[in-house]
């Protein structure tokens, strides 16, 4: 088993963190060092790349992860085909939902229904 690689924290160079814990450490260190965090920015290609704002453009131009992100974007571009209004007038109706549904709310609504049913039964 190979020893794990260590990363150096951009907020405090004395922090050497195992690669597997680096994201968690960045979030904690960012909160603990708000003054330094205001001067830093995350790379848009890899959130673990935190650099001074002044060097962000330079970093993003040479970022190691840039090519892999750009390849994914070109392989599957987002396309939307909207019907023309002349062809399908009845398809372009306004959507009005009849009931909103959320898993977390159903449990609460079930509790409310059962509690109101209990009160109705006891009050009969």
UniProtKB/TrEMBL annotation:
Q: Per the record, where are the segments of Basic and acidic residues compositional bias?
A: 105-124
Residue stretches spanning the membrane: none
User: Would I find Endoplasmic reticulum among this entry's keywords?
Assistant: no
| Annotated PROSITE patterns | ZF_CHHC_U11_48K (PS51800)
Q: Supply the name of the protein.
A: Gametocyte-specific factor 1-like
- Record key words, sorted: Metal-binding, Zinc, Zinc-finger
Q: Which residues form a coiled coil?
A: none
Taking every annotated instance into account, which residue ranges of this chain make up the domain CHHC U11-48K-type? 6-33, 40-67
Region annotation (Disordered) maps to 66-89, 103-124
Taken from the record, one Pfam family name reads: zf-U11-48K
């Amino acid at each position: 088993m190979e020893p794990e690689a260590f990363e150096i924290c951009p907020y405090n160079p004395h922090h050497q963190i195992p690669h597997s814990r680096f994201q968690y450490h960045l979030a904690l260190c960012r909160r603990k060092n708000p003054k330094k965090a205001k001067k830093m920015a995350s790379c848009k290609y890899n959130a673990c790349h935190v650099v001074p704002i002044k060097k962000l453009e330079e970093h993003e131009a040479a970022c190691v992860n840039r090519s892999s992100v750009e390849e994914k974007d070109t392989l599957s571009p987002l396309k939307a085909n909207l019907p023309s209004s002349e062809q399908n007038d009845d398809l372009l109706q306004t959507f009005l939902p009849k009931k909103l549904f959320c898993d977390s709310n159903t449990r609460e609504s079930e509790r409310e229904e059962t509690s109101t049913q209990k009160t109705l039964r006891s009050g009969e």
